[in-house]
Write a sequence for this structure.
């Protein structure tokens, strides 16, 4: 793992894809690649399927406790990545919270909301609750690593439970099995779009190099998707494109944080 990250740092590789320990991968990334200008910590960033397409969500587990300034940094990273990689000119960004009211949530989340609302570089559209993550209400959702990881794993658990219930029901009667075969043939493209393997692979976004984290239990198709994510990021030369954009905004970002503390 260390050698793979070092190869990216030395320019001998365009990206590193690893299914190893997330903490170790993060540590090697910070040690060998450093962070982009104005970014204090990288975030785990991945696509989540929604009713109308996908949403880019970060942080999904790298940083348990996040300050308002860090959430603001994640928002900049997410918004810029959505523009560069996904071609969304003005991505809608929302902040994950326990409610939609301005007085709901932790102090850091409320302060981050103020920073995002004042930042004209971000199309901030307010809070979003976890039950709306999958409805296509936003292009980018920002959260601390604890909330993001819990929301993601809870959704994976619900999806797995529903799948198990359907499988048990289908196997209970021959007529159910026949109906299921007809249903699967008519919804093949939908099943392919929602298959978990399509969403394997997450950016360690904010590092001065491309690192993609794959699920440890990924099969060959899932790992291919992680490799493809690395290919897309390398094709856009993502860190090199992000760096000057973040550097040019660094003084403004610091100013916004100070205004929010007053």
């Amino acid at each position: 793992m260390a050698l793979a990250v070092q190869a990216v740092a030395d320019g001998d590789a365009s990206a590193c894809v690893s299914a190893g320990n997330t903490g170790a991968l993060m540590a090697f990334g910070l040690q060998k690649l450093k962070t982009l200008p104005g970014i204090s910590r990288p975030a785990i960033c991945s696509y989540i399927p929604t009713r109308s397409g996908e949403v880019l969500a970060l942080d999904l587990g790298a940083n348990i406790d996040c300050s308002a300034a860090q959430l603001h940094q994640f928002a900049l990273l997410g918004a810029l990545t959505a523009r560069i990689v996904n071609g969304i000119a003005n991505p809608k960004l929302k902040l994950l919270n326990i409610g939609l009211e301005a007085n709901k949530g932790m102090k850091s989340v409320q302060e981050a909301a103020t920073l995002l609302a004042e930042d004209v570089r971000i199309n901030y559209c307010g809070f979003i609750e976890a039950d709306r993550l999958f409805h296509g209400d936003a292009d980018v959702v920002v959260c601390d690593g604890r909330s993001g990881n819990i929301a993601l794993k809870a959704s994976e658990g619900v999806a797995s439970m529903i799948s198990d219930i359907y499988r048990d029901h289908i196997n209970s009667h021959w007529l159910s099995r026949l109906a299921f075969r007809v249903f699967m043939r008519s919804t093949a493209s939908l099943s392919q779009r929602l298959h978990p393997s399509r969403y394997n692979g997450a950016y360690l976004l904010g590092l001065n190099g491309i690192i993609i984290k794959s699920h440890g239990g990924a099969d060959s198709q899932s790992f291919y998707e992680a490799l493809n994510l690395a290919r897309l990021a390398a094709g856009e030369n993502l860190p090199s494109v992000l760096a000057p954009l973040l550097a040019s905004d660094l003084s403004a970002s610091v100013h916004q944080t100070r205004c929010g503390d007053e």
Remarks:
- The chain is about 50% helix and 15% strand.
